[in-house]
Amino acid sequence: MNTVTRPRILVVGAGFAGVECVRRLERKLSPDEADVTLVTPFAYQLYLPLLPQVASGVLTPQSIAVSLRRSKKYRTRIIPGGAIGVDLKSKVCVVRTITDEIVNEPYDYIVLAPGSITRTFDIPGLTDHAFGMKTLAEAAYIRDHVISQLDLADASQDPVERASRLQFVVVGGGYAGTETAACLQRLTHAAVKRYPRLDPSLIKWHLIDIAPKLMPELGDKLGSSAQEILRRRGIEISLGTSIAKAGPEEVTFTDGRVIPTRTLIWTAGVVASPLIATLGAETVKGRLAVASEMNLPGEDGVFALGDSAAVPDLAKGDGAMCPPTAQHALRQGRHVADNVIASLRGQVLKPYVHKDLGLVVDLGGTDAVSKPLGIELRGLPAQAVARGYHWSALRTNVAKTRVMTNWLLNAVAGDDFVRTGFQARKAARLKDFEYSDAYLTPEQVREQVEGPRPQ
Ligand SMILES: Cc1cc2nc3c(=O)[nH]c(=O)nc-3n(C[C@H](O)[C@H](O)[C@H](O)COP(=O)(O)OP(=O)(O)OC[C@H]3O[C@@H](n4cnc5c(N)ncnc54)[C@H](O)[C@@H]3O)c2cc1C
Q: Which of 103, 325, 334 for mutating ligand 1's site (highest number of atoms within 8 Å of CB)?
């Protein structure tokens, strides 16, 4: 068959949503029906919910980086790079490859699943001094950074420097921030035993959030249990509080307290990938406003899903949109593939409906709180549900085996607290990890697609 006549389906992003979509397209479409292309900067699908366990060293980075090329059945063409703009009119996606070449990729159908980036605010010093928890590189970097604070504090003769190196601030009391603070506190608590010259009482973790509660989705009782666990471990929780100013050696809270610290981890929410703004289409809080079938109204062959799209939550109703969770993203991925196939074959598209299954929060060790299907669990049963859920959601058997082996090894042998130093000399700002400044403006996209205007 002539390849030119085959419709071209372009999927942007190899996360929960993108990979589920691609795998389903590969299964359900015959090779003659369409060409499938995936744009992704990395050669893996990242299992983000287990990122705090990479930061704390319970899991190795590779164990949650699930290969995109595991099977010979995978026939999708993969472009190694990031989409930096989409021109809806001419149906072209502009891609910057990993070698910094700019290429125009034409499509007939586009599925936008580039996820989200860390949401920041206009707080002095924030983007220069905070670390995020959204990429594998950030998790590995933070682990090295935290261990290096112990190393440097141990070597220092200056009590002021020691104190600032041994205080750590996490902003954001959602599940990502809470798990990050809990897992990293366990890391420093265990590691300090290998530093006989350090006074363990100097190590202090702060978890702060502007909201009045941690993880409000858990409900009052379970939320209080999570707080109780963290407080018992010595994590200081400050609610109704945020950051007024961040510097290299101290952070000022909005309640006036100045905390000497070299570690500010910012997990105060996410915002849709900047790719969405390049479309110049309607958005809801930055997410692309799509119909419940996940297509963009008024545009032929444009779909969006996951963290980057405002997909109506029909199970909740009342104009709600689906929360940015992996639970929704991967189900939307399968569903959008069916809808792309339906539009390719001239069939009717179906709306996406999914009732939330609940939440699992792994606080490290045997500490956890979970609310599967509305049932409140604490301690070991909650931990078994949390780990069982994540383990079964990993896409390949190899990834499952790696994660299980890591968990067992960590439970039996603990951590060696090795600082790799791989990224020690690299810039460590949010935008360096998340490439948030790599995108074009809608005008630049048009110019790139149409070529320079004649003088
Ligand atoms: C620390 C943490 C813990 C979490 N815990 C949970 C949990 O317990 N349960 C839960 O349901 N959810 C959890 N989430 C949220 C969940 O991970 C996200 O909602 C989910 O990953 C969204 O899926 P997605 O496919 O939309 O985006 P992602 O999974 O983020 O995938 C987006 C992909 O697109 C790629 N990409 C980005 N920009 C571009 C571009 N311009 N061009 C091409 N590719 C691009 C990225 O590299 C990535 O591979 C957690 C998130 C974090 C950060």
A: 325
